[in-house]
Design goal:
It is a single chain. By secondary structure, the protein is an alpha/beta fold. It is about 40% helix and about 20% strand. It is built from 16 helices and 22 strands. A hairpin with an 8-residue loop joins strand 1 and strand 2. Helix 9 packs across helix 10. The radius of gyration is 27 Å and the shape is globular. The protein starts with a strand and ends in a 7-residue tail after the last helix.
Length: about 525
């Protein structure tokens, strides 16, 4: 939880806005950060820009060395970071512990492959007439990349993006959510102070106004968050004519076909729906189960849900499966969706209410007899609910899954490989998993991006995941350099005739046209 309060700790004793961070599990004070002004954001951006040319000049090997030291810092400080994440998010220890390892994987991937991905390419000329030209495609980093990340994974989400940008040669200005600014601030401090790395990674803290200031000073923006905010950011980037990549909300569908391994599918659904209290963009938000196995699947899911433990540990011994929700606004959305479903005829087989007592905990909830007239099947819930809908067959499952403005991720469960691939190819989603649960997020060679209201562009994804932080430069060199070219001035009938005959001879794919003969009737 975060609140804004006035203190007198500003420069010269002047009052300044500060964000106070409290743990959602019990309300205790975790820390506080300043609300940085537009002028402060611009000053930090200017410093980062000034440091970028030297960082780029280090070359791939030089940058990879610093990325390697940063990886080691994550490994050495992983448990401490998990503790900060846990306190500011209210997560279980298990959920908090996955964030630093994510950073390690991404750093290793781009440190090891970045040079190959950004090496100058030499495409072949497209026609023989152009064989006298040498073509090059170069990648030049954006001077300053902005990364704005959400509260659900305060270390893991920026770690998806920042290493690739740094490896590309960019300086990076980050802004974490005002709800969870502390862990990432510590990561940035580690880069700058513990490692003494080049000053090309910075962070700012604050709410919406601070985020807007970041959008206004960077050359490329990576945003992760809601579709509502994403649209506003896209509009502003359009006004500034800067590129952006937006990873937005999801309403991810899970399809369970009659020939699925129900035990595995039920376990996948429970983990996929309740990990991090359902507060991840690729969380299972709606399930479609073929009629023949619906009841058996629901029974398995309900049994597994009954065994879930909800809470936040006070130490590092794992005692809970998932923890608190981030804030009152988010828990209110879950409450509204469950109430709406219940009012419209859904049955609650498990949970369905906020847990009594201290903390923002919501019981794991299973809903059946749901339909697309209910908010829980249309709007992003971002909470610990599993709405399960009975469908007649595969065709209905596909149609229902595609009946959404979102298209981030989905999964298909079947023992028939061909059927699984057929259904996966029919789904409107940027990532589909067959008999697995959002594992596509952790496959570094593959893009992670959404369709529709789930965003534009993609994060990670092999060469594209680092090239997005660069501008492309096309370079053409003349292998042969005569005093003039046939198409240059002065224009004449002769030169036009030569160009026309050459175009016809090289462009035609049949000999009559190559020779200028009329086509046969």
């Amino acid at each position: 939880m975060a609140t804004t309060a006035k203190t007198t700790t500003g420069p010269g004793g002047d009052a300044e806005d500060r964000i106070v961070v409290r743990c959602p599990a019990d309300g205790h004070l975790v820390g506080e950060v300043p609300v940085q002004t537009t002028d402060e954001v611009r000053a930090i951006a200017d410093r980062l820009r000034a440091a970028q040319p030297a960082w780029e000049a280090l070359g791939f090997a030089g940058r990879a060395r610093w990325l390697g030291l940063w990886r080691d810092w994550f490994l050495d400080n992983g448990e401490r970071l998990a503790g900060i994440v846990q306190e500011e998010t209210g997560k279980s220890w298990n959920d908090a512990g996955v964030e630093a390892p994510t950073a390690v994987e991404v750093i290793n991937y781009y440190a090891e492959h970045g040079e190959a991905f950004l090496r100058t390419e030499h495409p072949k000329p497209h026609t023989k007439a152009m064989a006298i030209k040498q073509l090059s495609l170069e990648y030049s980093p954006h001077r300053l990349v902005g990364v704005i990340s959400p509260w659900n994974a305060p270390v893991g989400v920026p770690a998806f993006d920042v290493p690739g940008a740094l490896m590309a040669g960019s300086a990076v200005l980050t802004k974490s959510s005002e709800w969870t600014p502390l862990a990432w601030e510590e990561v940035v401090r580690g880069w700058n102070e513990d490692l003494g790395a080049p000053a090309v990674l910075g962070s700012v803290t604050g709410a919406g106004e601070t985020g807007a200031a970041v959008v206004d000073v960077v050359d490329f923006l990576q945003f992760t968050g809601s579709a509502h905010t994403g649209r506003r950011i896209a509009a502003r980037c359009g006004e500034r004519l800067i590129p952006c990549s937006l990873e937005l909300g999801g309403k991810d569908a899970m399809i369970v076909l009659a020939d699925a391994d129900l035990e595995r599918a039920a376990s996948g659904a429970v983990w996929g729906g309740f990990f991090n209290a359902g507060q991840i963009c690729v969380s299972v938000e709606r399930l479609y189960v073929e009629d023949a196995v619906h009841d058996a699947f629901v029974a398995l899911v309900t049994e597994k849900v009954a065994a879930l433990r909800v809470g936040m540990e006070t130490g590092q011994d794992i005692a809970y499966d998932y923890g608190a929700m981030a804030n009152e606004a988010q828990i209110d959305i879950v409450d509204r969706h469950v109430a709406d479903a219940r009012d419209k005829g859904a049955r609650v087989l498990a949970g369905g209410a906020r847990r009594p007592g201290q903390g923002l905990f919501y019981e794991p909830t299973v809903l059946v007899d749901v339909d697309h007239g209910m908010d829980c099947m249309r709007e992003e819930t971002f909470g610990p609910t599993l709405p399960i809908m009975r469908v007649a067959d595969e065709a209905e499952a596909i149609a229902r899954a595609n009946d959404s403005e979102y298209g981030l991720s989905a999964s298909v469960w079947t023992t028939d490989r061909a059927r699984g691939e057929r259904v996966a190819s029919a789904l409107n989603a940027g990532g589909v998993n067959i008999n697995d649960m959002y594992i596509n997020m952790f496959q570094m060679p593959l893009p992670q991006g959404g369709w529709g209201a789930s965003g534009i562009g993609g994060r990670l994804g092999g060469a594209a995941g680092i090239r997005k932080f660069c501008r492309e430069r096309a370079v053409v060199r003349a292998r042969v350099a005569p005093k003039t070219e046939i198409q240059w001035y002065p224009a004449s009938n002769r030169s036009a005739g030569i160009q026309g005959r050459a175009t016809r001879f090289l462009g035609a794919r049949d000999w009559r046209r190559k020779l200028g003969l009329k086509p046969r009737p």
